[in-house]
Amino acid sequence: MGAELAHNRDYAEAINALGLSEKRGKFPHELSGGEQQRVSVARALAKKPAALFLDEPTGALDEATGRQVLDYIGRLRGELGFTVIMVTHNANIADMAKTVIKMNSGKITEQYRNRSQKSAYEIGW
Question: Rounded to two decimals, what is the model's pTM?
């Protein structure tokens, strides 16, 4: 539905890139937690957002699938130019960002810019 609202008929690419093509006809209760998480990312990307807000997008994923998701988000961000705002406890993902803001108990404890960003396959896990 999100793709329809954004007049995006080419959402199959997101489904395929996130490894969900075999799950297209499934209901949410038929998907694992990680698959449901990837569906949420695909739904958000299908809307072609100006800003993408992500809360622990790799939290329920194994390393290989997490890297696949982050890689696709990064590539699409490069192509479409949207802003990504991500909350994560995986500090290594910060190496992919231009600007990093670290928080503790609702307060900013550190803020910096990376001179160069790493790819999803270059960061530690």
Answer: 0.82
